[in-house]
Structure prediction request, 227 residues.
Amino acid sequence: MRILIVEDEHKIANALKRGLEHEAFAVDVAYDSDEGLSYATTETYDAIILDRMLPGERDGIAVCEEIRAKKIHTPILMLTARDQVSDRVAGLNAGADDYLIKPFAFEELLARLYALMRRPQATQDTTLKVDDLTLNPVTFEVQRGDKYINLSRKEFSLLQFLMRNSGIVVSKDSIISHVWNFDADILPNTVEVYMGYLRQKIDKPFPDSADLIQTVRGFGYRLGQRQ
Ligand code: CA
Prediction:
């Protein structure tokens, strides 16, 4: 297994390299973001350990985004010095798979690396896909074929819920409990109204493609083909 470490602090980087080599990993070290990005995009690794705080134009978040933008799905473990929820969220949203707060025990880093490498690569991509419809929960982009679709926030969360349950019938009650918050004013026809909005945007403008939203009378709705 081959690992890339991107970390500007030589002491930490070299200690990690020694520890991982001791565990029989092949290890490359990049001490800045440019070198890290160039290694990550030209070589093949089983996992990347990426420091959040890097000097220069790009920090770890930017490096992570660029790796993912190049469709490289290698598991990324981000090292962060800050124990801030917003920092961890930023790392995960940028495409990191896990994070570790400094200082950390080497054993924990090793355990997390092994856990990341066990995950199937296909699940690394957060984009949901049903037929020719795709939804990216991080960038909020929705596309049918190569056409971008603009949705309101509520339509977006409704579509995301339907896509996560594609092929199965979801009841109105289940839609309400997953898409609307507890305090929301729900009228008896609220779900129908929103399903109507979605149809207008994801099915109606595409007469050459099969309709994705199906009404299953007396039960609810299904997105995509029955499973
Ligand atoms: Ca650093």
